[in-house]
Amino acid sequence: MNFDIISPYHRKIKTKMNSLKTFDISFLENDKQLIAGVDEAGRGPLAGPVVAAAVIFDKYQFHPGINDSKKIKEQIRENLFDWIISNCISYGIGIIDQSEIDEINILQASLKAMKESVNHLSQKPDLILIDGNRSFKSELDTKTIIKGDSKSFSIAAASIIAKVTRDRIMRTESEKYPNYFWSKNKGYATKAHIDAILKYGSVDFHRKTFLNKIFERQQKLDL
Question: Which residues contact 221 (CB under 8 A, 6 or more apart)?
Fold first, then answer.
C-alpha cells in the first residue's frame, strides 16, 4: 500500500511510528507483505529451556513501548506480552528443553527453537527477520539482523514474547526447586545460584554441559 493513499487513521498512526516500525516497513514489497520477526531468550542460563518466538504484525499495527526485552522492566514486559498477542496477526513459540540443549549444544537448540516458533505461526510469512547473524534452514526467505531486537519492531516483539514465556517457566520451576532461586535469577549464573549448585548439586532442570566449569573450578579449589 502506498502511504500517500491511506486513511486519516492510518496516517495518524504513521506519524507515531518509531524507527523500529519503519525499519520493518522498509522490507515490505509487492511480494512481501507479511514479515515475521524472530528472537530467542535463554541462551546463557545454567538451567531451563531456550525459548524462541515469532511475531507477525499488520503494517500499521504499532505500540511505542515495544523494544528489546532486555531494556524493559519485567512488569512492563508482562503488559506488552498481552498487547502483542492481542494485536498481532499471528505469533508462534518454540521451546527446546535443557536435555536437548545438552545433546545438540545451545546454538543448534536456539536455531531449532526459532524454526519451531515459525512453524507454529497460523499464517506463513513472506519474509523472516531473525535476530543475530545465524539463520535456520527454511523454505521461506530469511534475513539475519545483528542486534535486531533493538532495530526491528517485530523482532523486539518476539524478544518480549520469548522472554516473558521463559520467565514464567522459570518461576513455575522455582516452586519445585526453591533452593536455586530461579524466580529471581531465571537460571542465570548468579553467585547465589552457583553457591546453591555447589551445596545441593544439580537437578534435571539444569543444563549439565553448562555446569562442568563450575564443578571443575570447585574441584581445583578443594585440592
Answer: none
131: closest CA among 32, 43, 198?
A: 43
Rounded CA separation 46/42 (Å) = 9
Sign of CA dihedral 121, 112, 49, 55: negative
142-170 per-residue burial string, b: 16 or more CB within 10 A, e: under 16: beebeebbbbbbbbbbbbbbbbbbbbebb
> How many residues are there in the chain?
223
**Predicted TM-score of the model (pTM):** 0.91
pLDDT digits (tens, 9 = 90+) for 107-128: 999 999 999 999 999 999 999 9
What are the Cα distances from residue 87, in Å, to 21, 94, 100? 15, 20, 33
Nearest one of 28, 31, 83, 15 to 55, comparing CA atoms:
83
**What are the pLDDT digits (tens) for 157-189?**
999 999 999 999 999 999 999 999 999 999 999
